[in-house]
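Anyone have tokens for Glucosyl-3-phosphoglycerate phosphatase? Sequence:
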Amino acid sequence: MSNTLQPLSDHWRNRYLFMRHGHSQANQQRVIVSSPGRGVENFGLSEHGEQQLAQLVADWQWPVPTRVVHSDFLRTTQTAAHVAARFELVPSVDTRLRERNFGELEGLGDELYPSVWALDAEDAEHQHHGVEALSRVASRMQSVIGDWEQQVSGEVILLVSHGDPLQILLTALAGKPLTSHREQTPLAPASITLYGHGV
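Reply: yep, here.
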């Protein structure tokens, strides 16, 4: 697969709110939690993350979502639940929105992220330490949008995912090399990026 992915379309049928989960227990403990075996049942939102979400939904400044779709990790599930409850929606799970799998680095300190990002900058296909390749992350994330673009139109779809997958997705959608995904400003916890039709 090439280092860049072709844009899905010049004409978007829907609008998308790309949301990183709120501040989590993994952020608080500064550990890498990227495997479903640990992240689905554990490491949900921190107390700070809960406060972030309460404030965000109280002061909502984005288009009102018509659908809420999220990774099945606990931190994204809890984030999605806050927004869905605010707008009386029933959230749905899509495992393609999961965290990037960091392989052998699972459970280790988050100070190891930059070493992976340095490798990313050299090769979008690398899988050092068993880390999921940029190209695979971009492909699965784009496929979520591709499916929604085929199924519905005129909707505002909130996709709740994780920092690395969302930055990789935004890089792909911009038509930039995937190896440059860390060149943009990192997405903060509970941040939202609007994309798509009419944006």
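The domain at 15-196 is CATH 3.40.50.1240 (Rossmann fold).
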